[in-house]
Design brief:
The protein has eight helices and seven strands. By secondary structure, the chain is of the alpha/beta class. It has one domain: 3-Layer(aba) Sandwich (Rossmann fold). The chain has a seven-stranded parallel beta sheet, sandwiched between helices. The chain binds 1,4-dihydronicotinamide adenine dinucleotide. 1,4-dihydronicotinamide adenine dinucleotide binds next to helix 1.
Length: 248
């Protein structure tokens, strides 16, 4: 069990990669604060079932990440549990429309950056303050290969490049209080985020991948679990691709 006895906070936990992370982290022995946007009975039932299956606790915490006051309130709930925080996974993210550079509005860029970047910074600020009390912790920021290679979405790819830059800045500073910070850059992963892409785009994307298929969410979650665990104790400030093999 990679994460036995660790307490982890995962954002965007209600579906996609985040939901797979809740399952994988619990399987590996972690207790989880599962951040989700809106109250959701099916999500709560899944959390309770997974917690029972693996003998851990999983607490749903509802928080609109585009709202800084809501993030602060969510952390008050986490702190009220009086449990140490060992792991943060900044997973929640949104993707905008595929638009020409000239057609990408400032307003749309703000919308994407509010969730993908500014919320990630605020959550990290509050979480690492808690971790620093025990002088240990691990942060995994979910970036994207779009943040490394660029892609057709200016707002999305730039926000993920910013996540990578923040990861390196945080890693430099926070190692002094025993906190490792890394970014995981998934490739094309089978979730709702990409379900609206046209067949043509899906085919083009898949063609570039050595494995010729999308990732399953749990394949990304498994890498995050390893990065969060003490098995990666000598790894910080890194960006790891999990993309099925995309070679330039
Ligand atoms: P998804 O759309 O299935 O899940 C995203 C989660 O983030 C949802 O649970 C959603 O409620 C939450 N979220 C979004 N906006 C929020 C807000 N304002 N407040 C609170 N929660 C909010 O997407 P997926 O694919 O699971 O994405 C997870 C992460 O992985 C994202 O950061 C995404 O950018 C990244 N990623 C995904 C890839 C893919 O191909 N699916 C590829 C590379 C990176």
């Amino acid at each position: 069990m990679l994460l036995l006895g660790k307490n982890a906070l995962i954002t965007g936990a209600a579906r996609g990669i985040g939901a797979a992370m809740v399952e994988v982290f619990a399987r590996e022995g972690a207790n989880v604060w599962a951040f989700a946007r809106k109250p959701d009975e099916a999500f709560e039932a899944r959390c309770a079932e997974t917690a029972q299956k693996y003998g851990v606790w999983i607490k749903p915490v509802y928080c609109e990440l585009a709202d800084t006051a809501a993030i602060k309130e969510a952390f008050r709930q986490v702190m009220a549990d009086k449990q140490p925080l060992h792991v943060l996974v900044n997973n929640a993210g949104i993707m905008g429309e595929d638009r020409m550079f000239q057609m990408t509005s400032e307003q749309e860029m703000h919308r994407i950056f509010d969730v993908n970047f500014f919320a990630m910074i605020e959550v990290s600020r509050l979480a690492t303050r808690l971790m620093a009390r025990n002088r240990q912790g691990a942060v995994v920021n979910i970036a994207s290969i779009a943040g490394i290679d660029g892609d057709s979405r200016l707002d999305y790819s730039a926000s993920k490049a910013a996540v990578i830059a923040a990861t390196k800045k945080m890693a430099r500073e926070l190692i002094s209080v025993g906190i490792r910070v890394n970014a995981l850059a998934p490739g094309f992963t089978d979730t709702d985020l990409v379900s609206g892409l046209s067949e043509k785009v899906v085919q083009e994307q898949t063609e570039k991948i050595l494995m010729k298929r999308k990732a399953r969410p749990e394949e990304i979650a498994n890498v995050a679990a390893f990065m969060a665990s003490d098995m990666a104790s000598y790894v910080t400030g890194q960006v790891w691709r999990a993309d099925g093999g995309i070679l330039s």
